[in-house]
Amino acid sequence: MIRVDAALDEAGVLRSCRAEGHAGAGPGGGDIVCAAVSVLMRTALETLSGRKGITLRGDAPRRGSFWIEADYTPEGKDFLYAAGAFLTAGLKSVSREYPDYCIMQISGWRK
C-alpha cells in the first residue's frame, strides 16, 4: 500500500507531499500504481526545481519513499499553487482508481 500525505497552507498552496510504501499491484518494475505515483512526484519536483520564488527540499532516501517540501515568496506563489493542484489532483485520481493500493490524505500545513 502506498500512503500519500500532502499538506496545503491556508492559501491552498502545496507545502509538502510525502509518498511511502509499495503498492503491490503488480510485479516489481511493472507496478502501474507505483509508476503513476513516482512519475507524478518526480515531475512535480522537476517542474518546481529552479523556479524563481520557490525553494524546494526533497529526497528519495530509499525505494518506496519520496518527499517534497516547498517554501515560496509572492513571486512563486501562483506557480506553486498551480503545480500543487496538478500534483494533488493526479495523486487523488490514482487513489480513487486503485483504492486497494494507494490512499491519499490532504491536511493543513504545520511548520
Structure description:
This protein is α+β, with helices and mostly antiparallel strands and 111 residues long. The protein has a single domain (2-108), classed as Cysteine protease Prp (Alpha-Beta Plaits). Helices cover 37% and strands 35% of the residues. It is built from two helices and five strands. The protein has helices at 32-48, 74-97, and strands spanning 2-8, 14-21, 54-62, 65-72, 102-108. Strands 3-4-2-1-5 form a five-stranded mixed β-sheet, with helices on one face. Strand 3 and strand 4 form a beta hairpin. Helix 1 (32-48) packs antiparallel against helix 2. The longest helix is centred in the C-terminal third of the chain and has 24 residues, at 74-97. The radius of gyration is 14 Å and the shape is globular. The model has no long low-confidence stretch (mean pLDDT 93).
**Number of helical regions:** 2
**Rg result:** 14 Å
Mean pLDDT: 93
Helical percent range? 25-40%
Question: Strand-and-helix sequence, N→C?
Answer: EEHEEHE
Q: Strand pairing plus helix content: what structural class?
A: alpha+beta
Say what oligomer this is. Answer: single chain
Indicate the CATH architecture.
2-Layer Sandwich
Poorly predicted runs: none
Domain module tally:
1
Assess the beta-strand content as a share of residues: 35-45%
Strand order, main sheet: write it out. Answer: 3-4-2-1-5
In whole angstroms, the N-to-C terminal distance is 27 Å
Shape: globular
Say what the CATH topology is: Alpha-Beta Plaits
- Please outline the major beta sheet: 5 strands, mixed
Fourth-tier CATH superfamily name: Cysteine protease Prp
Please provide the count of β strands. 5
Kindly provide the name of the CATH class. Answer: Alpha Beta
